[in-house]
């Protein structure tokens, strides 16, 4: 077994090296986590079991299925022009105030988030408009 401090330094260095090589951050973190757990326990089966359990629990989460559907609903509302009209209405109401464009964006984003129920979908929609 390796000293925990040495293993931590190697892990951090390996994450940075993988990111510099162009590996996606999530893949780099997952790979280094499995290798580090293998280094701590000395058994690859423990690391593989934890990876399998984590992947299964992430996919079976309710939010994993719902948030993409809200983003899709936001895309449909963007394509229909509803979000642009909402933004224009907010800009007419709040445009005369100092910082009105920013306030109108936040206001329209808040209204759309209240309609969809997910602020992530609202942010995805209004990042294209404002």
Features of this protein?
130 residues, mainly alpha, elongated
Count the E strands. Answer: 0
- Rounded to the nearest angstrom, the distance between the terminal CA atoms is 54 Å
Low-confidence parts, pLDDT < 50 over ≥5 residues? none
Which percent range describes the beta-strand content? under 5%
Please write the string of helix (H) and strand (E) elements: HHHHHHH
What number of structural domains do the residues give?
2
Structural class by helix and strand composition? mainly alpha
Largest sheet: none
Q: Enumerate how many helices there are, as a single number.
A: 7
Helix fraction, binned, reads over 70%
What is the global morphology? elongated
Please state the CA-atom Rg, rounded to the nearest Å. 22 Å
Mean pLDDT: 81
How would you characterize this protein structure?
With 130 residues, this protein is an all-alpha fold. 85% of the residues lie in helices and 0% in strands. It has 2 domains: 4-59, no CATH class; 62-129, no CATH class. α2 packs antiparallel against α3 (44-59), α4 (62-80) packs parallel to α7 (119-129) and α5 crosses α6 (100-116). The N and C termini lie far apart (54 Å). The model has no long low-confidence stretch (mean pLDDT 81).
Secondary-structure map:
Layout lengths: L3 H17 L4 H17 L2 H16 L2 H19 L1 H13 L5 H17 L2 H11 L1
Helix pairs in contact: 1-2, 2-3, 4-7, 5-6, 6-7
Briefly, what is this?
The protein is mostly helical.
């Amino acid at each position: 077994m390796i000293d925990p401090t040495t293993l931590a330094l190697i892990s951090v260095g390996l994450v940075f090296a993988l990111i510099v090589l162009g590996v996606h951050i999530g893949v780099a973190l997952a790979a280094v986590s499995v290798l580090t757990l293998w280094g701590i326990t000395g058994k690859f089966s423990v690391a593989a079991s934890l990876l399998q359990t984590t992947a299964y629990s992430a996919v079976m989460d309710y939010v994993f299925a719902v948030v993409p559907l809200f983003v899709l609903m936001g895309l449909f509302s963007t394509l229909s022009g509803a979000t642009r009209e909402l933004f224009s209405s907010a800009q007419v109401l709040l445009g005369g105030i100092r910082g009105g464009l920013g306030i109108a964006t936040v206001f329209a984003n808040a209204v759309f988030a209240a309609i969809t129920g997910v602020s992530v979908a609202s942010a995805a929609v209004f990042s294209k408009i404002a």
